[in-house]
Design brief:
alpha/beta; Rossmann fold; 6-stranded mixed sheet; 10 strands; 35% helix; globular; binds adenosine-5'-triphosphate; binds magnesium ion
Length: 254
Amino acid sequence: MTKLEAKNIVKYFYHDSHKLEALGGINLKVEAGDFVCLIGPSGCGKSTFLRIIAGLEKPDEGQIMFDGHPITETGPERIMIFQEGALFPWLKVQDNVEFGLKMAGIPKNERAKISNRFLDMMQLTKFADSYTYQLSTGMKQRVAIARALVMDPDVLLMDEPFAALDAQTRDLLLVEMQLIWEKTKKTILFVTHNVTEATVLGNKIVIFSNRPSIIKKQFENNSPRPRVTEDESLLKLQQDILAELRPEVKKSRG
Ligand SMILES: Nc1ncnc2c1ncn2[C@@H]1O[C@H](COP(=O)(O)OP(=O)(O)OP(=O)(O)O)[C@@H](O)[C@H]1O
Ligand SMILES: [Mg+2]
């Protein structure tokens, strides 16, 4: 079943009087339960594309369809996770995780039950009463993921969520993310600059061209899971992706 469909998404920005074409007509179908990794040169419009799907930004042309209906607004079924978790520093970890549930009017007992499950999944139970400044970057990112998952969204939109992490923490979260995906059956769109990360996570890998971006190529990835960064079976795919990506990155640097 098609969960999300981007139909000819075009987006311009204006820098003074200069028109900058970011997205040049993105067409993409995402099936329910897909784990799609988006990769492309810096500035090609990946974050813009995620924000449009989230309903945080409007396209100049085209439409995003969700379960067959056009999207015009934000909605709880599509939740975005940013590079830097963007947590509330005045709230404890557990209250950060429960924030959306509280806003939705879920009673305290129920909130605790749900948040405890995801704190446990993210190995944060011991830190439930800590403030976010007391956590490492990787732990904060796990809080941000837990905070999104408690809302039980259909679609998770993740914009370079692991970019600021050290390699060891990232490797752990790469495995964690695959387990969460298998357990929860979420549809995930995940932006990354890291080809290895894309091949470890994605069952589809989508290459964006240089601006004005279109989708240059899509790869399927059916290697057995859980995958790890050292998997040699992913090497060929990584080379194929790099061969598509390199010329685009070169063009983007003029
Ligand atoms: N609010 C804005 N106003 C003006 N220009 C913008 C705005 N947001 C994005 N842009 C421009 O649109 C283009 C795409 O930006 P975007 O952040 O989507 O790229 P990206 O692919 O996510 O890049 P990166 O990989 O570096 O995160 C860039 O050239 C950027 O300057
Ligand atoms: Mg970006």
